[in-house]
Write a structure and sequence with these properties.
2 domains, 7-stranded mixed beta sheet, globular, Fructose-1,6-Bisphosphatase, Chain A, domain 1, D-Maltodextrin-Binding Protein, domain 2, 266 residues, single chain
């Protein structure tokens, strides 16, 4: 079933790319969501509308969780659920950048079993199905096997280096790099292009569900900031940060974090 689900997600992601690229980024209508929830554009809504029509029709028993759809408790009664970010990196899209992605996933009883991250303007399609490995444009990918945190390139926003997150109030030494789309950051780790990624703030499920499976199927480890495996389709769809890397770098990062620092408590 994961293989059939993956084909469904790939076809839907390619169609999403066609829709989104009809808009011109900077000229797409944009407005801010209430409560400081960030920007949205007409392209986000157009992609979401297509996906919400297409995907549940193909899998009638599945639940639905999307950044651009009002949430419903109905999904909590379903064993399988779509977890969708129509456009991850909306700010980049609105600025005319190429670094934004469609992020599509299916989770079964909390575990992601099929996933796609697609960057149409970069012609990058990352995909994974449970037990079948991860690919980039059809070719197998694997996470970095780096065993030296000091020289590792870690995708992380600057606030993650705030000393209060780390033991002894001291962030570890590593080479920090950044990309604006969280889904793309995770895909790059799965590709082995970077050695790991880190986000220590509470993270929406739709930003990270697809990347979780892609990294794990590429041989990496993906957890929350406390080191626990990620579990999806929660009543409040937010997770306690993400650490993702090969086994050694993941362990090294997790070991240096202060478990008593701010975050979602279990």
């Amino acid at each position: 079933m994961p293989a059939a689900d993956l084909h469904l997600l790939i076809d839907a992601a390619l169609e999403a790319g066609k829709i989104a690229t009809r808009y011109s980024g900077e000229t797409a209508q944009r407005w801010d969501k209430p409560g400081g929830a960030g920007p949205v554009t007409e392209a986000d809504l157009a992609v979401n509308e297509m996906l919400e029509q297409r995907l549940p029709a193909a899998r009638p028993g599945f639940g639905w969780l999307s950044e651009e759809t009002e949430d419903s408790d109905d999904r909590l009664t379903r064993d399988r659920v779509f977890i969708i970010d129509p456009i991850d990196g909306t700010r980049s899209f609105a600025e005319g950048s190429r670094t934004w992605a469609h992020s599509l996933a299916i989770a079964e009883q909390g575990e992601v079993t099929a996933a796609v991250i697609y960057l149409p303007l970069r012609d990058l399609l990352y995909a994974a199905a449970k037990g079948q490995g991860a690919t980039l444009n059809g070719a197998a990918i694997q996470v970095s096997e780096s065993s030296d945190l000091g020289s590792a390139e870690i995708l992380a926003a600057k606030p993650n280096l705030n000393p209060h997150h780390w033991q002894q109030n001291q962030a570890p030494e590593f080479r920090r790099v950044y990309r604006p789309s969280l889904a793309y950051r995770m895909a790059l780790v799965g590709q082995g292009r970077f050695d790991g990624m880190l986000t220590l703030r509470p993270s929406w499920e739709w930003d990270i569900a697809a990347g979780d499976l892609i990294i794990r199927e590429a041989g990496g480890t993906c957890s929350n900031r406390l080191g626990d495996p990620l579990h999806f389709n929660n009543p409040h769809p937010r997770l306690n940060g993400v650490i993702a890397a090969g086994a050694f770098i993941h362990h090294a990062l997790h070991a240096k974090l202060d478990p008593n620092s701010a975050g979602i408590r279990p």
